[in-house]
Design brief:
By secondary structure, this protein is mostly helical. The chain contains four helices and no strands. The chain has one domain (22-94).
Length: 97
């Protein structure tokens, strides 16, 4: 697994230098801050669930939705999808469930 990843990383840097494999640290922080602020607004809007008797976690809800849509954790999404992730977080606030 590790060998494949190293080869893939080298290949992508040679043939697609404008692409990075993951978000840079600044974008990770911005997205996490967006998740936090949106989560605070989303918390009272989430419907109760029998699976969460103490209440749903809006931050986890957003992170799981991002992972379902993009197939990756928000930390592992390429920089090229940064704006798309921000827009999706805003979409989640407008459409709570």
């Amino acid at each position: 697994m590790w060998d494949w990843f190293c080869c893939y990383e080298a290949y992508s840097r040679i043939f697609f230098p404008q692409w990075s494999l993951n978000l840079n640290e600044e974008n990770k922080k911005i997205i996490w801050k967006k998740i936090q602020t949106t989560g605070d607004l989303l918390q009272p809007l989430l419907k109760p669930s029998p699976f969460h008797p103490k209440g749903r976690n809006a931050y986890a809800h957003i992170a799981i939705c991002i992972k379902q849509k993009f197939g990756l954790s928000y930390k592992d999404i390429p920089n090229e999808k940064y704006k798309e992730v921000i827009e999706y977080i805003e979409y989640l606030l407008a459409n709570p469930d």
